[in-house]
Amino acid sequence: MELSEVIAAIQDQLPGLGERVADRIRSNVPAYRNESLIPFDSLCRSCTDNADLVLSQLRRTGAPDAEPARETGRIRAEQGMPLADVLHAYRIGFEFLWSEILSEARAHSAVPDAQLVDRSAQIWQLFGLYAQAVAASHRETTAELAVQRGARRSALVEALFSGVIGDRITLWDAARELGLPERGPYAVVAAAAESPGEEPLPGVETSLRQAHLPSAWRLLPDQQIGVIALGTPDAEPTGLRILRRAGARVGVSPGFSSLRETPQALRFARLALAGLPGDGPGVARFDDNPLAMLVAAAPAEAAHLMSRVLKPVLDLPGLERTRLLETLESWFAAGGSAATAAQRLYVHPNTVRYRLRRVEELTGRSLSDPHTVADLGAALLAAGLGRDAGRTMPAG
Fold first, then answer.
1. How many CB atoms lie within 10 A of CB 130?
2. pLDDT (0 to 100) of residue 267
């Protein structure tokens, strides 16, 4: 009896043989037990088709057809089955078929051992070919699906920030797809990118997720923007620590309760970013200094206020102008304490008082008048924003 006759006899046992292979796979690969992922009848059909393919190839000569294996790889990737489990299932199927061939051949002693040796090499050659095809197709499909999911996620985040999503049902669907809770509190983050396409907050979504803070992000040419769910009491300080670790310039909006408010929150986050002093890394919350945010929101009006209130100081020669502005800034930062400001500036308190009187003389405004202090504070913030943006102050 020829081995090809043995293989034909086994092939006649399909589809029952395919069902037995499916049972073996389910027993040995836990991921295949998920009925909602892969229904048993679907697995049986797949096992039957693959067994028929392998047995047919063993009965004939010529190049094997790997397309069905590629199709299996594609389907399993779409179902979300890990590649390692798919390859494990394939190996189980091949081992099962070969054991069936050996059992049938032993029942017919006329089958030469040489044929069994030859076919054992052939069947494992087929396994290598089909496993390679499955793996290649699975990886290709997984990559395509990742791109599609990324594009879909990016589009949903963009829709949130642009205000395109409006009705409650659509908002709920978007929140669910993005992994965000339906209700807040949330906060929006805007981080400045040093160059187009570069993430100023690399890995931030993963870091936040590990801290149980769901978020969704979008990368723009000049900024990375995101919305973070702040559902626990310690969520905000935890989120701020993660943002600070990135070493970027970051603005954070006030908290808000509905995703419908995301576009306005993005504006607040960008204003906080614009109001961040200096040019180094840091995190600025809109609520930390609302006056600075308002100044940043109206740059033209702020520039006019700065010129009107501080013009006599700004017209001074460079060194004197810098000293008076630094002293005034330190005095404001010290809560109006000349002694504390002096410590920060490494000068005597009387030096601070002298410079403050000089500001009063030049501007004609008394620092004991609350209205004057408010005007000077706003003008000083505008001057600081002007320096941070690279604008040159007028010189005398």
1. 26
2. 87
* 184 residue type, one letter: G
pLDDT for the residue numbered 395: 34
Q: What is the pLDDT of residue 388?
A: 47
Sign of CA dihedral 365, 367, 370, 376: positive
Locate tokens 């626990």: which residue?
Answer: 232
Is the CA virtual torsion 277, 283, 289, 295 positive or negative? positive
Question: What is the spatial distance between Cα 257 and Cα 236, in angstroms, rounded to a whole number?
Answer: 14
pLDDT tens-digit map of 69-112 = 898 899 999 988 999 999 999 899 999 988 888 888 877 666 77
| Whether the Cβ atoms of residue 227 and residue 157 lie closer than 8 Å to each other | yes
